[in-house]
Amino acid sequence: MSITTLLPGRLGFGTAPLGNMFRAIPDDEAAATVEAAWQHGIRYFDTAPFYGAGLSEIRLGEALSGHPRDAYVLSTKVGRIILDEVEDPAARDLGEKGGLFEHGRPNKIVNDYSADATLRSIEDSLKRLKTDRLDIVWVHDVAQDFHGDQWLAVYESARTGAFRVLDRLRDEGVIKAWGLGVNRVEPLELTLDLEEPRPDAFLLAGRYTLLDHSRALQRLLPAAAAQNVDIVVGGPYSSGVLAGGTHFEYQKAPADIVAQVERIKALAQQHGVGIKAAALQFSLAHPATVAAIPGATRPSRIAEDVAALDETVPAAFWTALREEKLISPDAPVPTA
Could you say which of 27, 28, 44, 51 is catalytic? Predict the structure, then answer.
């Protein structure tokens, strides 16, 4: 099914930063950011056990506990179990994402995509989120960036475990939809080739942005659209570098990416366009993409995101990006 009838709008809130990604965030600042999202009309919130070893879920659950459960859509992820025993967050083996959430809780994180672990993960998330149900569940990070050469074995474990459990829970009405939440296109392409089980949507982070979209355009997005599998865009600002930050792919942005951003910013200034508006609206222009979920840790950022979605971007700006070969000639762009 399409999740467009489930989602309350095209802009959601990705709460990975609330797990103390990149920096230690005070609890009151995290709570204020969620409340700012609510006050600006955002009603879709995405989280995961992985984000700060449960910290993001705990903070989001507390912040949303004062709002009616029927008034918002909630998604979280499976594939990792959070234990009571502790470890050094900075010493975790996270593949290409080393050091991520080193400021989060020290609880030990265990990768497990089996059927039993999937059910346990959901139960644990419900407790941390202070809720009785989840709307969407994503299978988290079954891709090369976290699992390296072993990613196909991990994917197979998820296919025979988590995928089948979530398919059943959806059919039973326990959850409303499920899919994969990843930073790479390959596992999504693989999943579209399966006869069963059938996901409803994918959460794709960082692969359909102004800075990186060519690979997704080739096969993934056309195939997803043809199969009615919706795409939620995570990381539309490419870990922040498109929104004034210094990170790309969750690490310090390399010189070539910084240079690319500067070229985009220069064109944006020439056309009177905010770079956030350009990034957000580009990610949402493809027919397969149904929502974007930028993250934030400061309330003011939420207002910027809402304004960016509504900003008028002249067609001449998109033409200039194409002429400068800063976006693919095949990429759909917003129309006025």
Answer: 51
